[in-house]
């Protein structure tokens, strides 16, 4: 199960503000430490340290860029997989629903009603912490069992009927699509990866402030802009990893339209 960490529990604006303030604080601490150290050193030693620190800063920012690009790609691939899983499940449910007409006439009305409730349950799962709702999980399993029982009863009535076999196969596909979609939604980014990016970001801003302190001057606007860019990228990564809250969400329109096509 996904971890209930601070990135999932707090509002996205609060998370972004905290990240930004921490980055600005790291840069300020680095600057103050360097100013204190520079005051107690000779100019030559300070210049040598400043030049050596420039190489370290370049390497740290290179690592940060690679990490941000890598984790951003991971978040995008997971987001796309979740969207595709929704499409696949919607198609599978739609196909199975159409094949209800292949059942014996006496079972079609009951199966149609179960399908409507089943789609409602799947729409209800499109929210944060859906995997913790035991009632919803039990309801989904029960509805699947009811559909399967109806299909097997129809098959037992006429074991040689090809139409019933097609319906049962569509139920199999629908159940597989549900499992695949739930697995895709649970496949979140490792929290340790986000913490690693934040740690490198803090180190980068601290190094930037320290280097500016050794040099005796700094660009406060540049430091703020850099912190904003890092915060924005990390914030987008977190948003992509939480597709049922925040600004970047996965539309349920295809599933909604399927439910509407089933009638009230």
Could you characterize the architecture of this molecule?
It is a single chain. The chain is mainly alpha-helical and 264 residues long. It has one domain (6-217, 239-261). Helix content is 80%, strand content 0%. It contains nine helices and no strands. The protein has helices spanning 6-9, 12-39, 43-98, 105-124, 134-157, 162-186, 191-215, 220-240, 253-261. Helix 3 (43-98) packs antiparallel against helix 6 (162-186), helix 3 (43-98) runs parallel beside helix 8 (220-240) and helix 4 runs antiparallel to helix 9. The two termini are 34 Å apart. The model has no long low-confidence stretch (mean pLDDT 88).
Characteristics:
rod-shaped
Query: In this structure, how is the largest beta sheet organized?
Result: none
Whole-angstrom Rg: 27 Å
Portion in helices = over 70%
Per DSSP E runs of 2 or more residues, the count of β-strands stands at 0
Shape: rod-shaped
Q: What count of structural domains?
A: 1
Average pLDDT level: 88
CA(first)-CA(last) distance? 34 Å
Strand content: under 5%
Q: Uncertain segments of ≥5 residues (pLDDT<50)?
A: none
Series of H and E elements: HHHHHHHHH
Class per helix and strand makeup = mainly alpha
Provide a count of the helices.
9
Task: Give me the secondary-structure topology.
Layout: H1 6-9, H2 12-39, H3 43-98, H4 105-124, H5 134-157, H6 162-186, H7 191-215, H8 220-240, H9 253-261
Helix pairs in contact: 2-7, 2-8, 3-6, 3-7, 3-8, 4-5, 4-9, 5-6, 7-8
Briefly summarize what is shown.
The protein is 80% helix and 0% strand. The chain is built from nine helices and no strands.
